[in-house]
């Protein structure tokens, strides 16, 4: 499956869930950093109050959402950066925010990029993940993912015991969209944002297999 087929022609919520268990990587000066995607959020375009394209907003800052599926929308809030992928045809501004990964590649470098933070604190949030990768600009915004240092492995994924659908984090609480189940995560994985210790799974929410990714 290629990126265009994966990131178009099906609902954004389906794409957000299908990304779970896949490996997201970033090439940083010859070093490969990355891990298993464990948390995503779907944003559903002009009707979605929490989406950057709500009510048809369009500007150079959010143009990445209006690109065809498989293009990157990297945006900034203060000094922090966030990684989204557009998920529909051109001019249909929906996308998926990758919120967290379980590190598997280049962990020592990611710890250094996170100023010595270890364990779940390396990547248990979207800004933390980008810091761990060493991303400090929007350079790859508006680019198709296969023409950037980022990559998502579409050939395989780690089997998951249970996917949870939950309300998104940081959406205004007096709006109906705050209650919609548009955040998806691997149940019991310690790298999921705000994962409670009482909810942790001893296998991080993965099905036991002989061949681990």
From TrEMBL:
<dbReference type="InterPro" id="IPR011034">
    <property type="entry name" value="Formyl_transferase-like_C_sf"/>
</dbReference>
<protein>
    <recommendedName>
        <fullName>Putative 3-methyladenine DNA glycosylase</fullName>
        <ecNumber>3.2.2.-</ecNumber>
    </recommendedName>
</protein>
<dbReference type="Pfam" id="PF02245">
    <property type="entry name" value="Pur_DNA_glyco"/>
</dbReference>
<dbReference type="InterPro" id="IPR036995">
    <property type="entry name" value="MPG_sf"/>
</dbReference>
<keyword id="KW-0378">Hydrolase</keyword>
<keyword id="KW-0227">DNA damage</keyword>
<dbReference type="GO" id="GO:0003677">
    <property type="term" value="F:DNA binding"/>
</dbReference>
<dbReference type="GO" id="GO:0006284">
    <property type="term" value="P:base-excision repair"/>
</dbReference>
<dbReference type="InterPro" id="IPR003180">
    <property type="entry name" value="MPG"/>
</dbReference>
<comment type="similarity">
    <text>Belongs to the DNA glycosylase MPG family.</text>
</comment>
<keyword id="KW-0234">DNA repair</keyword>
<dbReference type="GO" id="GO:0003905">
    <property type="term" value="F:alkylbase DNA N-glycosylase activity"/>
</dbReference>
